[in-house]
Amino acid sequence: MTETSVRLTQQGEVATLTITSKKGVLGPGFWREVPPLLATLGPARVLIVRGQEWFSAGLDVKATAPVIAPALGDPQAFGAVVAEMHAAIEGLAALPIPVIAAVHGWCIGAGLELISACDLRLCSEGARFSLPEVKLGITADLGGLQRLPGLLGRGRAAHLALTGEPIDAETAERWGLVTEVLPTPDALFARAEALAAALAQLPPRALEGTKRALNAELPHAQGLQQAVAWNAQHMSAEGLMTALNGRSS
């Protein structure tokens, strides 16, 4: 049985979570290892998520089938199995720090649902994205169908999910799935690290408050109130003056 190995490294205030399994398959080990790794981020102010060989070929069906098969037909048992996967992806989404996905090679199925939970997504020119679950008789259930409409618009998310057909890096950028396409994987990783370093220099409470406001599924007026309440609690006159003085210098 192939187990996914995940490595967490940290340089200064930037942490990197690397999927190190062959072709980035996401097997039972991945889902077990990620939540405790996220709990060890400590002083990290930005997290980069990347693959090693590819970003991710998606769920390791061969390794996961023995776990899923006994639960089929039993919603409660199946829900318990999938809950472990949800814990990893939702834990990533819930981090108070910015999360950058750096995608090279294929990003398939569960891998695409994983990056939809990140805040920023970059890729290299050779990246390909696919949500092929429908071709396998499956409804994607790891958050992609909930998050992708907000990223791509409902029509493009529906096209991706209902056809199961892949899109290339240029299309992903045009559709809004990624915000930058870099020429090579090396250029991609360098850009992700530079962006992470720049974000790490910004006030962490402002980043956290901005992320909370962006991710909050609230009516407009309540969203405004949330942002105002956050500033009232976390903005300081000293910090504001320091920022203004720095801008004018």
UniProtKB/TrEMBL annotation:
PROSITE patterns: ENOYL_COA_HYDRATASE. GO terms for molecular function: isomerase activity. SUPFAM superfamilies: ClpP/crotonase (SSF52096). It holds the Pfam family ECH_1. Belongs to the enoyl-CoA hydratase/isomerase family. This is Enoyl-CoA hydratase.
